[in-house]
Write a structure and sequence with these properties.
Layout: E1 3-7, H1 15-26, H2 35-43, E2 53-59, E3 62-70, E4 83-89, H3 98-112, E5 117-122, H4 126-131, E6 135-142, E7 145-153
Antiparallel strand pairs: 1-2, 2-3, 3-4, 5-7, 6-7
Helix pairs in contact: 1-2
Amino acid sequence: MTYSIDLLGHHPDLVPRVARWHWDEWGADFSDSSLDEWTKQLAAKTRTDGLPCSWVAFADDEPVGSVVLELDGVEPQPELKPDLAGLYVLPASRNRGIGSALVRACEAGAREFGVLDLYLYTERAETLYARLNWETLERTQFLGRPAAIMRRSLRS
């Protein structure tokens, strides 16, 4: 399988599909929201010339994953921004390096836009991010579950 990564803004027709992935993965935690609202929010994060923006991964020309570089701030600590969010890879495409490649694309984009420090929170992927040189700042609780807040310095 070969894969590539491109800005989601170059593929606006994929926004509803990617929003559906995100909604199916995390939407149950946000009962005051809707798929329509998530789709609109994602559409607003598809710039191709600055922040906020998103990337989509393709395997054999089919979309299989995404990541968002946003200005909303880390969910439990919104003052920590910009942040990497919404890293998602379809289950059938996991464990093939696509998630790591999406993180690297997000980091490179952030650097290009002058970001010096990038943040995230994760409930399940702290080990993945640590392998990619992210530093755990704090372990906390979010939505009643353990989570790690992490930072990646993009300086030099």
